[in-house]
Amino acid sequence: SASASGAVALLLELVDGGSLDAVARRRAGAAFPEAAVAEVAAQALSGLAYLHARRVAHLDVKPANLLASTDGEVKLADFGIARVLPPRAGDHRAPSYAGTAAYMSPERFDPEAHGGRYDPFAADVWGLGVTVLELLAGRYPLLPAGQKPSWAALMCAICFGEPPALPDGAAASPELRGFVAACLRKDHRERASVGELLAHPFVAGRDVAASRRALRRLVAEASSPSS
Q1: Which of 63, 94, 150, 226 shows the greatest Cβ crowding within 10 Å of its Cβ?
Q2: Contact predicate 120/94, CB 8 Å
Q3: Mean pLDDT, the chain, as a whole number?
Protein backbone atom coordinates (compact mmCIF):
# COMPACT_ATOMS: atom_id res chain seq x y z
CA SER A 1 0.00 0.00 0.00
CA ALA A 2 1.08 3.62 -0.46
CA SER A 3 0.79 6.32 2.21
CA ALA A 4 -0.12 9.95 1.60
CA SER A 5 3.59 10.80 1.70
CA GLY A 6 4.31 8.41 -1.16
CA ALA A 7 6.12 5.84 0.99
CA VAL A 8 5.33 2.25 0.09
CA ALA A 9 4.75 -0.50 2.64
CA LEU A 10 4.48 -4.21 1.97
CA LEU A 11 2.28 -6.44 4.09
CA LEU A 12 3.70 -9.96 4.03
CA GLU A 13 2.53 -13.22 5.54
CA LEU A 14 4.48 -14.35 8.60
CA VAL A 15 5.76 -17.91 8.22
CA ASP A 16 6.68 -18.39 11.84
CA GLY A 17 9.11 -21.30 11.56
CA GLY A 18 11.44 -19.48 9.19
CA SER A 19 13.37 -21.17 6.42
CA LEU A 20 14.16 -24.88 6.45
CA ASP A 21 17.81 -23.89 6.43
CA ALA A 22 17.27 -22.01 9.70
CA VAL A 23 15.25 -24.90 11.13
CA ALA A 24 18.08 -27.30 10.27
CA ARG A 25 20.67 -25.02 11.90
CA ARG A 26 18.59 -24.78 15.07
CA ARG A 27 18.54 -28.57 15.11
CA ALA A 28 22.37 -28.54 15.16
CA GLY A 29 22.75 -30.85 12.19
CA ALA A 30 20.22 -33.47 13.30
CA ALA A 31 18.62 -35.19 10.31
CA PHE A 32 14.97 -34.61 9.50
CA PRO A 33 12.83 -37.74 9.90
CA GLU A 34 11.71 -39.29 6.62
CA ALA A 35 8.03 -38.57 7.27
CA ALA A 36 8.71 -34.85 7.66
CA VAL A 37 10.85 -34.81 4.51
CA ALA A 38 8.03 -36.47 2.58
CA GLU A 39 5.73 -33.63 3.60
CA VAL A 40 8.32 -31.01 2.63
CA ALA A 41 8.75 -32.67 -0.76
CA ALA A 42 5.00 -32.94 -1.35
CA GLN A 43 4.29 -29.30 -0.55
CA ALA A 44 7.32 -28.00 -2.45
CA LEU A 45 6.26 -30.04 -5.47
CA SER A 46 2.75 -28.65 -5.21
CA GLY A 47 4.19 -25.13 -5.36
CA LEU A 48 6.47 -26.00 -8.26
CA ALA A 49 3.57 -27.60 -10.14
CA TYR A 50 1.60 -24.36 -9.80
CA LEU A 51 4.56 -22.35 -11.11
CA HIS A 52 5.47 -24.69 -13.95
CA ALA A 53 1.87 -24.82 -15.17
CA ARG A 54 2.16 -21.05 -15.59
CA ARG A 55 5.54 -21.29 -17.35
CA VAL A 56 7.45 -19.93 -14.34
CA ALA A 57 10.74 -21.51 -13.24
CA HIS A 58 11.99 -20.71 -9.74
CA LEU A 59 15.70 -21.52 -10.42
CA ASP A 60 16.85 -21.26 -6.79
CA VAL A 61 15.21 -24.14 -4.92
CA LYS A 62 17.14 -24.78 -1.69
CA PRO A 63 16.44 -25.07 2.06
CA ALA A 64 16.91 -21.34 2.59
CA ASN A 65 14.11 -20.62 0.09
CA LEU A 66 11.57 -23.02 1.58
CA LEU A 67 9.69 -21.48 4.50
CA ALA A 68 7.89 -23.61 7.09
CA SER A 69 5.23 -22.67 9.61
CA THR A 70 4.59 -24.28 12.97
CA ASP A 71 1.27 -25.59 11.65
CA GLY A 72 3.11 -27.67 9.06
CA GLU A 73 2.86 -25.57 5.90
CA VAL A 74 5.77 -25.18 3.46
CA LYS A 75 6.03 -22.29 1.00
CA LEU A 76 8.44 -21.39 -1.78
CA ALA A 77 10.11 -18.01 -1.32
CA ASP A 78 12.57 -15.66 -3.05
CA PHE A 79 11.63 -15.26 -6.70
CA GLY A 80 14.54 -12.92 -7.36
CA ILE A 81 15.88 -14.94 -10.30
CA ALA A 82 12.65 -16.71 -11.31
CA ARG A 83 11.83 -16.54 -15.02
CA VAL A 84 8.68 -16.60 -17.08
CA LEU A 85 9.47 -18.92 -19.96
CA PRO A 86 8.48 -18.94 -23.61
CA PRO A 87 6.11 -21.69 -24.79
CA ARG A 88 9.00 -24.07 -25.47
CA ALA A 89 11.14 -24.36 -22.33
CA GLY A 90 13.72 -26.48 -24.12
CA ASP A 91 14.62 -23.45 -26.22
CA HIS A 92 15.55 -21.44 -23.13
CA ARG A 93 19.10 -20.21 -23.27
CA ALA A 94 21.13 -20.48 -20.09
CA PRO A 95 21.52 -17.07 -18.38
CA SER A 96 24.55 -15.89 -16.50
CA TYR A 97 25.38 -17.79 -13.32
CA ALA A 98 22.46 -16.50 -11.29
CA GLY A 99 21.37 -18.44 -8.26
CA THR A 100 23.18 -20.60 -5.73
CA ALA A 101 25.98 -22.71 -7.19
CA ALA A 102 25.65 -25.52 -4.64
CA TYR A 103 22.09 -26.26 -5.81
CA MET A 104 22.59 -25.78 -9.56
CA SER A 105 22.02 -28.78 -11.78
CA PRO A 106 24.88 -30.00 -14.00
CA GLU A 107 23.44 -28.37 -17.11
CA ARG A 108 23.11 -25.02 -15.33
CA PHE A 109 26.51 -25.23 -13.71
CA ASP A 110 28.26 -26.02 -17.00
CA PRO A 111 25.90 -24.82 -19.77
CA GLU A 112 28.56 -24.96 -22.48
CA ALA A 113 28.71 -28.75 -22.09
CA HIS A 114 24.97 -28.82 -22.85
CA GLY A 115 24.90 -26.56 -25.89
CA GLY A 116 24.21 -23.44 -23.83
CA ARG A 117 20.60 -24.46 -23.29
CA TYR A 118 18.70 -26.32 -20.58
CA ASP A 119 15.23 -27.12 -19.28
CA PRO A 120 14.63 -24.79 -16.32
CA PHE A 121 11.85 -27.00 -14.96
CA ALA A 122 14.29 -29.92 -14.71
CA ALA A 123 16.72 -27.57 -12.94
CA ASP A 124 14.08 -26.90 -10.26
CA VAL A 125 13.70 -30.66 -9.75
CA TRP A 126 17.46 -31.03 -9.22
CA GLY A 127 17.41 -28.29 -6.57
CA LEU A 128 14.58 -30.06 -4.78
CA GLY A 129 16.50 -33.34 -4.86
CA VAL A 130 19.59 -31.77 -3.31
CA THR A 131 17.36 -30.12 -0.70
CA VAL A 132 15.77 -33.45 0.25
CA LEU A 133 19.21 -35.03 0.59
CA GLU A 134 20.44 -32.15 2.73
CA LEU A 135 17.52 -32.35 5.15
CA LEU A 136 18.06 -36.09 5.52
CA ALA A 137 21.82 -35.77 5.98
CA GLY A 138 21.79 -32.74 8.28
CA ARG A 139 24.42 -31.03 6.11
CA TYR A 140 25.13 -30.12 2.49
CA PRO A 141 25.32 -33.58 0.90
CA LEU A 142 27.37 -33.22 -2.29
CA LEU A 143 30.72 -32.56 -0.59
CA PRO A 144 32.48 -34.35 2.27
CA ALA A 145 31.74 -32.95 5.73
CA GLY A 146 33.86 -29.90 6.41
CA GLN A 147 34.98 -29.33 2.81
CA LYS A 148 34.73 -25.73 1.68
CA PRO A 149 32.15 -25.37 -1.12
CA SER A 150 34.48 -23.65 -3.58
CA TRP A 151 33.51 -23.26 -7.22
CA ALA A 152 36.02 -25.92 -8.28
CA ALA A 153 34.89 -28.41 -5.64
CA LEU A 154 31.25 -27.91 -6.54
CA MET A 155 31.93 -28.29 -10.27
CA CYS A 156 33.76 -31.57 -9.67
CA ALA A 157 30.96 -32.90 -7.48
CA ILE A 158 28.01 -31.71 -9.55
CA CYS A 159 29.29 -32.08 -13.09
CA PHE A 160 31.83 -34.90 -12.89
CA GLY A 161 31.02 -36.85 -9.72
CA GLU A 162 28.67 -39.78 -9.32
CA PRO A 163 24.95 -38.96 -9.16
CA PRO A 164 24.16 -37.82 -5.61
CA ALA A 165 22.49 -40.50 -3.50
CA LEU A 166 21.90 -41.60 0.07
CA PRO A 167 24.72 -43.69 1.56
CA ASP A 168 24.18 -47.44 1.28
CA GLY A 169 23.97 -47.83 5.05
CA ALA A 170 21.56 -44.95 5.64
CA ALA A 171 18.16 -45.79 7.10
CA ALA A 172 15.85 -44.91 4.23
CA SER A 173 12.90 -46.55 2.56
CA PRO A 174 13.11 -47.81 -1.04
CA GLU A 175 10.53 -45.15 -1.91
CA LEU A 176 12.78 -42.38 -0.60
CA ARG A 177 15.81 -43.75 -2.42
CA GLY A 178 13.83 -43.96 -5.64
CA PHE A 179 12.55 -40.41 -5.24
CA VAL A 180 16.04 -38.99 -4.75
CA ALA A 181 17.37 -40.93 -7.75
CA ALA A 182 14.51 -39.62 -9.92
CA CYS A 183 15.31 -36.01 -8.93
CA LEU A 184 19.07 -36.24 -9.34
CA ARG A 185 19.70 -37.87 -12.69
CA LYS A 186 22.70 -36.10 -14.21
CA ASP A 187 21.08 -36.02 -17.66
CA HIS A 188 18.22 -33.53 -17.35
CA ARG A 189 16.32 -35.35 -20.10
CA GLU A 190 16.05 -38.38 -17.82
CA ARG A 191 15.10 -36.44 -14.70
CA ALA A 192 11.54 -36.87 -13.44
CA SER A 193 9.09 -34.03 -13.96
CA VAL A 194 7.23 -32.37 -11.11
CA GLY A 195 4.05 -34.18 -12.17
CA GLU A 196 5.79 -37.55 -12.11
CA LEU A 197 7.26 -36.80 -8.69
CA LEU A 198 3.85 -35.86 -7.28
CA ALA A 199 2.71 -39.36 -8.30
CA HIS A 200 5.82 -41.03 -6.87
CA PRO A 201 5.13 -43.47 -3.99
CA PHE A 202 7.36 -41.46 -1.62
CA VAL A 203 4.92 -38.55 -1.94
CA ALA A 204 1.63 -40.02 -3.14
CA GLY A 205 1.89 -43.03 -0.84
CA ARG A 206 2.77 -41.17 2.34
CA ASP A 207 0.48 -41.10 5.36
CA VAL A 208 -0.52 -37.46 4.93
CA ALA A 209 -1.72 -36.91 8.49
CA ALA A 210 1.37 -38.53 10.02
CA SER A 211 3.76 -36.67 7.70
CA ARG A 212 2.12 -33.33 8.40
CA ARG A 213 2.25 -34.08 12.12
CA ALA A 214 5.95 -34.99 11.93
CA LEU A 215 6.78 -31.75 10.12
CA ARG A 216 4.66 -29.64 12.45
CA ARG A 217 6.34 -31.16 15.51
CA LEU A 218 9.83 -30.71 14.06
CA VAL A 219 9.34 -27.05 13.17
CA ALA A 220 7.64 -26.26 16.49
CA GLU A 221 10.44 -27.86 18.50
CA ALA A 222 13.10 -26.02 16.50
CA SER A 223 11.23 -22.74 17.01
CA SER A 224 10.73 -23.07 20.76
CA PRO A 225 12.82 -20.74 22.99
CA SER A 226 14.60 -23.70 24.61
CA SER A 227 15.79 -25.19 21.29
Answers
A1: 63
A2: no
A3: 89
Give the 3-state secondary structure of residue 70.
coil
Task: Say which of 60, 71, 78, 168 is annotated catalytic.
Answer: 60
pLDDT at 96 over 70: no
Distance CA 170, CA 189 (A): 28
Each residue's pLDDT tens digit, 110-134: 877 777 777 899 999 999 999 999 9
The H-or-E segment that residue 55 falls in is none
Chain centre to alpha carbon of residue 45: 9
Q: Is the Cβ–Cβ distance between 76 and 95 less than 8 Å? A: no
- Separation CA 14–CA 96 (nearest Å): 32
Closest C-alpha to 76, from 155, 160, 13, 27 = 13
| 3-state secondary structure (DSSP) of residue 66 | strand
Would you give the DSSP letter of residue 32? P
The span from the CA of 145 to the CA of 91, in Å, is 37
pLDDT (0 to 100) of residue 29: 81
Burial profile 60-97: b = 16 or more Cβ within 10 angstroms, e = fewer: bbbbbbbbbbbebbbebeeeeebbebeeebeebebeee
Rounded to 5°, the CA angle 148-187-61 comes to 55
Distance, C-alpha 211 to centroid of its chain? 18
Determine the 3-state secondary structure of 184 from DSSP. Answer: coil
Active site annotation includes 60: yes
How do residues 9-18 score in pLDDT, each as one tens digit?
Answer: 888 888 888 9
In this prediction the pTM is: 0.90
